[in-house]
């Protein structure tokens, strides 16, 4: 009976320890996004000399990227993935700003067609988080869909960010296809030597929701602004969660596909 009581008492303690380990791994994986948010806050309330704010943000992001690679917090392979996301994100930014979806109202020497180059690092930071969390948590995918289903779906989701300005918005149809394609898929991960798993669709929703929270923080610090925030800051519409959810799905599919291709080349 004493052993049973001790075992019961140890469960909450173990749960707290595992939760702390998981949180610590997540915090380390979020290092790049945290630096970006800290830089946004710093440059909003502290005027830096010589260069405009957007240029300082670009310099900080470049220095942070250099530190991440030199300190081996990021591998060279991860840097390639992050660079790809920087290009994908910058292309989306150029189009969305041109269409008036949001704007970067401040001046900057590093702005191209109204888009500051630092903005690509905000997308790259999502890739940085995915790559590092993947490595630290020893992520393994269970019943991952075939290549022929994943790649066209990722392309269709990304293209819809552009085409819905001229055609119907099919995001909800695409969300339904995602549920069908990934219905049996699970993500398995390790914390403190113990393995856990969750439905892949649930992990998409959780990451998308937390990015929406991060978006509210970013717009508060004037990283960019939506049309309804031009006069004063207001909460980003909850409907934007669907956009971030789809973007997270695209990001995850790209990283997972590259990981699988890399794994196959080593065999």
How much is the radius of gyration in Å? 20 Å
How many domains is the backbone divided into?
1
Mean pLDDT: 79
Which class do the helix and strand fractions yield? mainly alpha
Order of SSEs, N→C? HHHHEEHEHHEEHH
Number of strands: 5
Helix content: 55-70%
Portion in beta strands? 5-15%
Low-confidence runs: 1-9
What does this 3D model show about the protein?
66% of the residues lie in helices and 7% in strands. By secondary structure, the chain is mainly α. The protein has one domain (2-265). A hairpin with a 2-residue loop joins strand 4 (186-191) and strand 5.
Summarize the structure.
The protein has 267 residues and is mostly helical. It has helices at residues 2-29, 31-45, 53-70, 76-98, 119-136, 147-163, 171-181, 200-220, 240-265; strands spanning 111-112, 115-116, 140-142, 186-191, 194-199. It has one domain (2-265).
């Amino acid at each position: 009976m004493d052993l049973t009581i001790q075992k019961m008492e140890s469960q909450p303690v173990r749960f707290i320890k595992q939760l702390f380990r998981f949180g610590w791994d997540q915090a380390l994986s979020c290092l790049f996004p945290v630096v970006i948010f800290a830089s946004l806050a710093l440059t909003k309330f502290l005027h830096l000399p010589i260069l405009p704010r957007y240029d300082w943000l670009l310099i900080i992001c470049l220095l942070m990227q250099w530190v991440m690679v030199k300190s081996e917090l990021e591998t060279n392979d991860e840097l390639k993935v992050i660079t790809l996301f920087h290009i994908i994100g910058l292309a989306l930014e150029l189009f969305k700003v041109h269409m008036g979806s949001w704007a970067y109202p401040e001046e900057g020497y590093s702005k191209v067609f109204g888009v500051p180059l630092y903005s690509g690092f905000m997308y790259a930071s999502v890739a940085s988080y995915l790559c590092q969390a993947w490595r630290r948590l020893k992520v393994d995918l269970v019943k991952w869909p075939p290549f022929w289903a994943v790649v066209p779906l990722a392309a269709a989701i990304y293209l819809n960010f552009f085409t819905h300005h001229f055609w119907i918005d099919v995001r909800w149809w695409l969300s339904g296809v995602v549920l069908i394609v990934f219905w049996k898929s699970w993500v398995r991960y390790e914390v403190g030597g113990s393995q856990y798993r969750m439905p892949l669709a649930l992990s998409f929703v959780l990451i998308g929701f937390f990015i929406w929270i991060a978006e509210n923080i970013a717009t508060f610090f004037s990283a960019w602004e939506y049309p309804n925030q031009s006069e004063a800051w207001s909460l980003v519409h909850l409907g934007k969660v669907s956009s971030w959810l789809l973007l997270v799905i695209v990001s995850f599919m790209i990283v997972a596909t590259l990981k699988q291709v890399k794994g196959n080349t080593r065999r």
